[in-house]
């Protein structure tokens, strides 16, 4: 069984027991959160596709950690103009573990 959920402007294909990192969610570590924006649920051969959301479908997850991703480097450079600028960025994330998919 798997589902496609929408959170943080992105879509994720999730299965029970799976761990993933999503955009920051305001919740404490150990809290149970539920995602009601479920786009699709598949259970074996039975596939339910929402228009745009599947009615009554809920995916529950447990918050396992909060953190920051690896630093990415942004470099701007103009040749022969003595212009060189370097910046970095670290995106915040929330690590979750999917516990239950209810269709």
Describe the overall structure.
- The protein has 103 residues and is mostly beta strands.
- The protein contains no helices and ten strands.
- It has a four-stranded antiparallel β-sheet, with no helix packed on it. It has a four-stranded antiparallel β-sheet with strand order 3-10-7-4, with no helix packed on it.
- Strand 8 (72-78) and strand 9 form a beta hairpin.
- The radius of gyration is 19 Å and the shape is elongated.
- The model has no long low-confidence stretch (mean pLDDT 96).
Keywords:
mainly beta, 103 residues
How does the major sheet shape up?
A: 4 strands, antiparallel
- Mean pLDDT over all positions: 96
Estimated radius of gyration? 19 Å
Order of helices and strands: EEEEEEEEEE
N-C termini distance: 10 Å
Q: How large a portion of the residues is in β-strands, by DSSP E?
A: over 45%
Globular, elongated, flat, extended or rod-shaped: what is the shape? elongated
Oligomer: single chain
Query: Order of strands across the biggest sheet?
Result: 2-1-5-6
List unreliable stretches of 5+ residues: none
Helix content: under 10%
Count of individual beta strands:
10
SSE class: mainly beta
Number of alpha- plus pi-helical segments: 0
Break the fold down into its secondary structure elements and pairings:
Elements: E1 2-7, E2 10-14, E3 19-22, E4 32-35, E5 38-43, E6 46-49, E7 58-68, E8 72-78, E9 83-89, E10 92-102
Antiparallel strand pairs: 1-2, 1-5, 3-10, 4-7, 5-6, 7-10, 8-9
Give a quick summary of the entry.
With 103 residues, this protein is mostly beta strands. The chain has strands at residues 2-7, 10-14, 19-22, 32-35, 38-43, 46-49, 58-68, 72-78, 83-89, 92-102.
């Amino acid at each position: 069984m798997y589902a496609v959920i929408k959170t943080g402007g992105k879509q994720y294909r999730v299965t029970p027991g799976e761990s993933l990192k999503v955009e920051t969610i305001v919740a404490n570590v150990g809290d149970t959160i539920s995602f009601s924006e479920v786009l699709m649920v598949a259970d074996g051969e039975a596939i339910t596709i929402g228009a745009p959301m599947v009615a009554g479908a809920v995916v529950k997850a447990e918050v396992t950690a909060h953190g920051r991703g690896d630093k990415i480097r942004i470099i701007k450079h103009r040749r022969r103009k003595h212009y060189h600028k370097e910046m970095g960025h670290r995106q915040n994330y929330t690590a979750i573990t999917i516990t239950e998919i209810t269709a």
